[in-house]
Amino acid sequence: MSRIFAYARVSTIEQDTQNQIAEIKAAGFAVKQHRIIAETVSGSVAIAKRLEFSRLLEKMEQGDVLIVTKLDRLGRDAIDVSSTVARLEALGIRVHCLALGGVDLTSSAGKLTMGVINAVAQFERDLLIERTQSGLARAKAEGKSLGRPPALSIEEQEFVRSELSLGKAVSALARHMKTSRQTIMRARDLK
Question: How many CB atoms neighbour CB 20 within 10 A?
Fold first, then answer.
């Protein structure tokens, strides 16, 4: 007989997992108290690095069911969620997500749903890259300098080149200018 586990996560200590647990129970899942795992950890932390989720995995066995209210409880992004679901499926654990109508993510319908979610996530990443590249190209066309500002002013760069031409060592100049050797070498190469 399958055992049912619930995983609830919030990001800050000001938040509470009780709403997620109540939602799981209201959906008809009878989860014993000792099988409810609640955790306070940022969603940006990969699930593999979450202490309570790791403990949950140690308790679960083939044939068990894991219930979450939303996909973002399981991972920081679609790729993290997909790999987590695949890992659980490989262990013989079914994963149900209430926000997706309680669908078992390891079933055919669940895999289709995950495929669509992954495709949308990839599309959003591609759009972000396109917008970023477009913005950088526009800024460059407008004559704006891109990247981090130089560590040394133009005058300091000229001073560095002058001192180097007189035979001063890169290391000595870096100490004198209170900067790194790499910064001195960059100024040297900006002729």
Answer: 23
- C-alpha 55/C-alpha 57 separation (Å) is 5
Range list of β-strands (E), the chain: 4-10, 36-40, 65-68, 94-97, 103-104
- Looking up tokens 């995983």 gives 7
Query: How many Cβ atoms are within 10 Å of 120's Cβ, its own excluded?
Result: 11
Catalytically active residues are 11
Whether the Cβ atoms of residue 107 and residue 88 lie closer than 8 Å to each other: no
Instruction: Indicate the domain borders of the chain.
Output: 4-107, 154-189
> Tell me: the pLDDT tens digits for 49-77?
899 999 999 999 999 999 999 988 888 77
Chain Cα centroid distance, residue 34: 29
Which top CATH class is 4-107? Answer: alpha beta
pTM of the predicted model over 0.85: no
Q: Where residue 2 falls among pLDDT bands split at 50, 70, 90? A: confident
